[in-house]
Amino acid sequence: RLSLGDELPKLHHEANTLYWANALLTMTYNFIDGVISSADAPPPFNIPRLCFVNAGLALAHSQLTKGLAKPKFGGMLCGVYLLEEKIEGGSDAFIKYIHNMDCGPSLSMDMDGYDIAEFLTFTQHVQYAKSGGLVIISDYQG
């Protein structure tokens, strides 16, 4: 573990990154839904509906005043934690769809999950185009 002074900014950065990545995925689905709603017919394939793990930053504070009938809280920060929802299935259910050093699928065409990896590659293209080339989500896994 890092010192509290080092860990807080790192976990704050990670929580913020998850927040923005979730926003980028939402933007991508809004784009897809807009295109589909203006099309003459639905696409001839299924569009996966994926989500990010819900996460949040938890700050633990010491009790400010002790010995009172009604204690006051808000004392010194004594711990910081990144909380994430539990993913069922363990490591057997884990798939690396896109590596953080490559924009293409990490799976070959004959592997389970390739269709999702290919869709995630498409989401990167949409994110790149819609952000003016500023950002994409990489390192997709689940």
TrEMBL record:
Q: What is this protein called?
A: Alpha-type protein kinase domain-containing protein
Q: Which organism is it from?
A: Pisolithus microcarpus 441
Its lineage opens with: Eukaryota, Fungi, Dikarya, Basidiomycota, Agaricomycotina
